[in-house]
């Protein structure tokens, strides 16, 4: 009795804990979304996901349990002994009979319920059939369970979305071979099969429950596919095979595939569970014989089999449209074999499957216990299975090898053209403006002076050496860290105006700056964030983690093209000042006027991952000031007020932080700041978007769009709408075959405010999401001009497009088939190892464009060759934002590629000797990014060289290498190197090539 009461108390305690846990999660999420202003988004997601879970789980449970309950009523009792078994047992001795069946005398009187003579299943047929059904049930459980687990716990699938593979007849073998090849899955499947054979009633029902939960989870996590179906936006473009608008494939087909995936699994397991219930009744395995299916059992099997065949027919109907994703043939999408053989086969299998399904369902409704045509059902199913294999696998393979491959170009030419056209559409390659660029090699000193703004913005500092230097010179305390350095451009006051104007339509005018001349400068900006993991272990207490170490402080801003004394970077903004200059030190009055700083506290950033509590009795560490520290009290708009009341208990339960309940440091105005990592913050609000890997910091005055008290630091993040359902579009390595940079996101680094702006209003997917969440997105024109001048073409998007362009710049089908003009990304030497060139930002003027602008650029070389063949540029300023320009070099002349320039640098006897001298014990030379810079109708190659110590690294810029045409020069500064190239007769030799004279290696 005591243990019984203990068990009941345990059940009550667990139930209460689950209730409080779920309630705290719901309450905390509601408060958080209310704080960020997107409560409507959360509630719509919550209600829709909850509804889909209940619908899927409830429908699955009702169907499977209902059929299992009916099968339990119609199955043979375990006490049944048919005549053949009784005859065999009569020949045994009484001792053996009693040993085999102690209740024989009582069981002997049992008769088959309907009294009919049925065809029994002997053990040689019964055991393989029961084992096959049991293994198939285990395969279903493992397959669907693996997908659900991948949704519930993404790390299980390496954080990749699981692929919903429909459980069709022709894919069962493929899935089985994949799962059986892994020992864990093989053990699970075999274990489930054995458990079903031994304890069929319990495990068949248990699997039904598990599958109900699994299907609920799958629909729960695929809520976006369902809800998008009801808000489709036309693409105003059709695919050529079926003539349907592409919106059908993006918004409708995924829902039908999801329903087929769910219902196929439910109906297939329902049929297997019912069949096993009957086959394992009457103690059939122990007796070694099954009496045969009774009339009512056959009627039940006809019903569940009819529903299964209905779904099989529907599955082949969907397979017709999925041919546009076929990998068969020389190009992606429906090929000659798919269209001429596979499509008619799917049409036939769809019609035949539906015909069999309707016949089975009709016979179920209008059942006759005696029918001479009943055996033809098995014959028909056997013929259908044969046709599935013959038309789905054998015939297409024969046609592909005997008809297509001997005449492949002729047969596939139409389909290659479709793949080219739709892939270019899906990756926005058809909008690229292709031009011819013929380097003339006629740059002069006058041309260099005329392009002075371009020269002053050539990037000599890469992110890596600058970050290493920052960490040595600007972190000040172990708990500060610079996680990244971002390239941007700022309009700065200057005493001398640039010879050529920079373009941004939003650029600051002289009137707006009190008549001061301005120019655009490319800079590297790095946020000084708080990294609590670097706090000494002895000081990592609860109070320090959540109440004292709450925020980072300030940033550094460096020009990309200059170095200070000793080769260290110069800083426009640096240090922590706290003086009359402001919170941070600036290099000049012009910088103070150009770069807004205000209060540069960073409560939301790239590193922040712990919640903090502000407005408590404990003062927050603001920044180190000499031998003491300065302290601050957060007065921003972010955070959830928890005070000292019931909210305190709710968030203590939600965060599983019980010290929140017992601390005496809370005040009525105490706030909780959650999700301070900018990526996790926007991911929680808009999980249906893909986000760029590189949020970047912007210093700008964005009031009144972002209200606050003198806070000017913002994070900008690019977001993408993607799909893997664009017809005929060849997917990249991550499975994406459609992408648009549709959204720009701005996050206030002090208040945590998040705003979403639509950057590409022509994208139908973002139009659909805007219709679903009408209050979530704003037009790009609503973004403050001060922030809009800092938007840039994102590297991730550009990398995907440039990778696809390596193949899909070939629009001629013959050239594409031969792959005769395929490109590749060239290599460069970074440090002392080769690596692919990464896209890089420049401020330069494009050929035929009379002004400098901020562009993103990457060069190409022909496949397996090293000379330049083209370069792709993306524009980022004003009305030209998002425009892509492709400059093709003449194929009949040599244009040096990055690998050829690197070879010339390392083969130069003086340069290589100098690098070898630096690479002595205790130091090493680092060759930085080799930049290919277009200036007028010529190309200039620039590579910085850094020197760093092997310990306590503090990289310094020691040389700049410039190559032009057949000339190559290394000097201490870019200006000296350019003089050596264009004015060799007046340039003294020592500044060009000379040993490092700054003394011992830094660090």
UniProtKB/TrEMBL annotation:
Q: Where in the cell is it found?
A: Cell membrane
Q: What is its main location?
A: membrane
The protein's matches in InterPro entries, at most eight in alphabetical order, are given as: UPF0182
Keywords assigned by UniProt, alphabetized: Cell membrane, Membrane, Transmembrane, Transmembrane helix
What parts of the sequence cross the membrane? 51-71, 125-153, 179-199, 206-224, 261-280, 301-318, 345-365, 377-403
What membrane topology term does the record carry? Multi-pass membrane protein
Reading the lineage from the top rank, the first entry is Bacteria
Protein family per UniProt: Belongs to the UPF0182 family.
This protein is called what?
Answer: UPF0182 protein H6G18_02245
């Amino acid at each position: 009795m005591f243990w019984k009461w203990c068990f009941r108390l345990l059940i009550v305690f667990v139930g209460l804990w689950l209730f409080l846990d779920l309630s705290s999660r719901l309450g905390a999420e509601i408060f958080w979304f209310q704080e960020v202003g997107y409560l409507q988004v959360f509630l719509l997601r919550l209600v829709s996901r909850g509804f889909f879970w209940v619908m899927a789980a409830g429908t699955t449970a009702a169907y499977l349990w209902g059929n299992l309950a009916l099968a339990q009523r119609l199955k043979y009792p375990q006490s049944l002994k048919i005549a053949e078994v009784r005859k065999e047992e009569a020949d045994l001795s009484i001792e053996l009979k009693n040993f085999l069946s102690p209740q024989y005398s009582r069981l002997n009187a049992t008769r088959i319920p309907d009294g009919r003579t049925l065809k029994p299943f002997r053990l040689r047929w019964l055991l393989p059939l029961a084992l096959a059904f049991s293994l198939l049930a285990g395969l279903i459980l493992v397959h669907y369970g693996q997908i659900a687990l991948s949704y519930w716990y993404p790390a299980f699938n390496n954080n990749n979305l699981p692929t919903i593979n429909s459980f069709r007849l022709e894919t069962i073998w493929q899935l089985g071979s994949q799962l059986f090849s892994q020992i864990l899955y093989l053990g699970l499947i075999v274990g489930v099969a054995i458990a079903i054979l031994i304890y069929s009633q319990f495990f068949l029902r248990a699997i039904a429950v598990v599958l109900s939960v699994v299907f609920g989870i799958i629909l729960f996590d695929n809520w976006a596919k369902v809800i998008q179906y009801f808000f489709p936006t036309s693409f105003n473009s059709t695919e050529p095979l079926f003539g349907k608008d592409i919106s059908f494939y993006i918004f409708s087909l995924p829902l039908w595939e999801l329903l087929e995936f769910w219902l196929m699994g439910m109906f297939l397991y329902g049929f297997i569970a019912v069949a096993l219930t009957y086959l394992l009744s009457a103690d059939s395995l122990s007796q070694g014989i099954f009496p045969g299916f009774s009339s009512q059992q056959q009627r039940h099997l006809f019903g569940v089999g009819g529903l299964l065949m209905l779904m099989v027919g529907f599955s082949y109907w969907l397979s017709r449209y999925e041919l546009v994703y076929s990998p068969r043939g020389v190009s992606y999408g429906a090929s000659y074999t798919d269209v001429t053989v596979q499509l008619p086969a799917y049409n036939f299998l769809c019609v035949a499957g539906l015909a069999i399904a309707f016949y089975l369902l009709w016979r179920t409704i209008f059942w006759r216990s005696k029918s001479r045509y009943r055996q033809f059902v098995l014959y028909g199913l056997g013929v259908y299975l044969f046709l599935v294999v013959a038309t789905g696998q054998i015939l297409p393979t024969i046609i592909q090898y005997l008809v297509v491959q001997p005449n492949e170009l002729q047969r596939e030419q139409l389909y290659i053209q479709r793949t080219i056209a739709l892939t270019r559409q899906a990756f926005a390659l058809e909008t690229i403006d292709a031009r011819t660029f013929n380097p003339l090699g006629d740059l002069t000193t006058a041309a260099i002076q005329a392009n002075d703004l371009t020269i002053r913005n050539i990037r000599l500092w890469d992110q890596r050496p600058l970050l290493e230097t920052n960490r040595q010179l600007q972190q000040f305390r172990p708990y500060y860290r610079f996680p990244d350095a971002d390239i941007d451009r700022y309009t700065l006051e200057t005493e001398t105006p640039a010879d050529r104007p920079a373009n941004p339509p939003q650029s600051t005018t002289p009137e707006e700056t009190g008549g001061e001349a301005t120019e655009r400068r490319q800079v590297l900006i790095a946020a000084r964030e708080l990294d609590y993991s670097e706090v000494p272990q002895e000081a990592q207490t609860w109070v320090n983690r959540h109440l004292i170490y709450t925020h980072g402080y300030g940033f550094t801003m460096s020009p990309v093209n200059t170095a200070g004394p000793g080769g260290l970077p110069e800083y426009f903004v640096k240090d922590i000042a706290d003086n009359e200059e402001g919170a941070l030190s600036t290099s000049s009055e012009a910088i103070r006027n150009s770069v807004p700083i205000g209060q540069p506290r960073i409560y939301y950033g790239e590193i922040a991952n712990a919640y903090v509590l502000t407005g408590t009795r404990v003062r927050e560490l603001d920044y180190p000031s000499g031998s003491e520290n300065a302290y601050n009290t957060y007065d921003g708009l972010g955070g959830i007020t928890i005070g000292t009341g019931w909210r305190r208990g709710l968030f203590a339960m939600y965060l599983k932080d019980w010290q929140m309940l017992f601390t005496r440091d809370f005040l009525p105005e105490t706030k909780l700041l959650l999700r301070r990592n900018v990526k996790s913050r926007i991911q929680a609000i808009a999980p249906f978007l893909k986000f760029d890997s590189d949020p970047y910091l912007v210093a700008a005055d964005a009031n009144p769009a972002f209200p606050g008290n003198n806070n000017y630091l913002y994070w900008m993040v690019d977001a993408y709408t993607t799909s893997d359902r664009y017809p005929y579009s060849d997917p990249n390595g991550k499975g994406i075959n459609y992408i648009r940079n549709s959204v720009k996101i701005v996050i206030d680094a002090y208040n945590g405010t998040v705003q979403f702006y639509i950057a590409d209003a022509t994208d139908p997917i973002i139009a659909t999401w805007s219709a679903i969440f009408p209050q979530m997105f704003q037009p790009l024109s609503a973004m403050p001009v001060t922030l809009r001048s800092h938007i840039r073409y994102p590297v991730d998007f550009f990398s995907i497009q440039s990778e696809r362009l390596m193949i899909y710049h070939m629009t001629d089908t013959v050239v594409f088939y031969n792959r005769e003009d395929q490109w590749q990304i060239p290599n460069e030497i970074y440090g002392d190892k080769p690596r692919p060139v990464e896209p890089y930002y420049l401020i330069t003027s494009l050929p035929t464009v009379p002004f400098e602008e901020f562009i993103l650029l990457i060069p190409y070389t022909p496949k397996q060759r090293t000379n330049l063949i083209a370069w792709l540029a993306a524009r980022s300023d004003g009305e030209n934002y998002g425009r892509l320009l492709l400059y093709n070099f003449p194929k009949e002349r040599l244009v040096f590629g990055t690998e050829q320039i690197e070879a010339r640098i390392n083969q130069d006897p003086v340069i290589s000797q100098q690098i070898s001298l630096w690479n002595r014990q205790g130091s090493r030379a680092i060759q930085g990014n080799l930049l290919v810079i277009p200036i007028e109708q010529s190309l200039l190659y620039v590579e910085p060289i850094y020197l760093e110590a092997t310990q306590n690294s503090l990289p310094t810029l020691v040389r700049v290498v410039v190559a032009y045409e057949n000339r190559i020069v290394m000097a201490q500064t870019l200006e000296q190197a350019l003089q050596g190239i264009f004015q060799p007769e007046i340039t003294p030799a020592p500044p060009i090539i000379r040993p490092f004279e700054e003394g011992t290696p830094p660090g």
